[in-house]
Amino acid sequence: MTTIQSLPDSLRFGSMTEPLWIEFDRRVGYHSMNETHYHRSYEVFYLYSGSRKFFIRDSVYHIQPGDIILVDSNVVHRTSELSEPNHERAVLHYDLPFFNGMAPEETELLLVSFAADHPIIRLNIQEQMHVEALLGSLLGELNERPPGYLLHVRNKSTELLLFIARYILKRKAAPDNTLSPVQQKVTAITRHINEHFMEPLLLDDLAKQFFISKGHLCRVFKEVTGFGFSQYINITRIREAEHLLRSTDWSITLISEQCGFENFSHFGRVFKKMVGMSPREFRGLEREN
To answer: Which of 24-28, 182-186, 249-253 shows the highest mean pLDDT?
Structure first.
């Protein structure tokens, strides 16, 4: 059986544009994601060692070895270090084409976990051994690439989703995730942003509403989420703009207004900075695909 000790420090398979994208990393020193992060794929994150802080949607979680983190499609998330700088993790991304050829009820079963209220699975030792044996077999095939390894990788990736789905369906209680008062306040602020991003959101107003100074709000928001206050608002608005450009025939000006931008030119600048292309180019590319 392949162990992670026998793997290279970094292992990659596929890319963000493919049905299955897999990463394994052994990282030494402090490491935090430094970019806006959300994607159409469904993400399974497994932590082998170390500790991490994981911000998902509007909540922060402290992750320990043996935890599985589930990130739904198009949900904003970010990881950063906690007390231990070194860590080892495996990440699998499943895009919808991965499930082509499956019956609708099979796809629904494999994706049910990502709609769970709590995105963390805290495994016991026996369950950790099972998951690590499964991942070890998968990663070992990726590293050695014997004949038929693609079939093996697909089968093991599906088996992992099936294990998670069965676990979620029988889970009676979510793991404890006690938050500090500061984390609770930031969670309330992010939920407010998620619910009211289409309205004007001014730092002055939110500071008064949540009884916190502007400077302290900006500081603790960054500490807890990993995002700047204005950056998080823009991420939330642009993510919705992408959805509307993809799923409606609304004019780009109307989409800009519906997503909370005061003027079209500001929307265009922010969109291009975050997505790498204009809203019109994004819509054209999505329709070609």
So the answer is: 249-253
CA distance 36 to 222: 13
Concatenating the DSSP letter of every residue in the chain gives ---GGGS-SEEEES-TTSSEEEEEEEE-S-----S----SSEEEEEEEES-EEEEETTEEEEE-TTEEEEE-TT--EEEEE-S---EEEEEEEE-GGGGTTS-HHHHHHHHGGGGSS--EEE--HHHHHHHHHHHHHHHHHHHH--TTHHHHHHHHHHHHHHHHHHHHHH--SPPP----HHHHHHHHHHHHHHHHTTS---HHHHHHHTT--HHHHHHHHHHHHSS-HHHHHHHHHHHHHHHHHHH----HHHHHHHTT-SSHHHHHHHHHHHHSS-HHHHHHHHHH-
Q: Which position has the higher pLDDT, 135 or 289?
A: 135
Query: 181-288 in CATH: which number?
Result: 1.10.10.60
- The per-residue pLDDT for range 103-132, each reduced to its tens digit, is 999 999 999 999 887 899 998 888 999 999
Is the pLDDT at 233 greater than 90? The verdict is yes
Answer CATH for 4-170 from 2.40.50.140, 3.40.190.10, 3.20.20.70, 2.60.120.280: 2.60.120.280
pLDDT tier, 139 (very low <50, low <70, confident <90, very high otherwise): very high
End-to-end CA distance of the chain: 40
| Average pLDDT across the chain, whole number | 88
Q: Where are the domains of the chain?
A: 4-170, 181-288
> Mean pLDDT throughout 13-41?
78
* Six-digit token string for 127: 């369950």
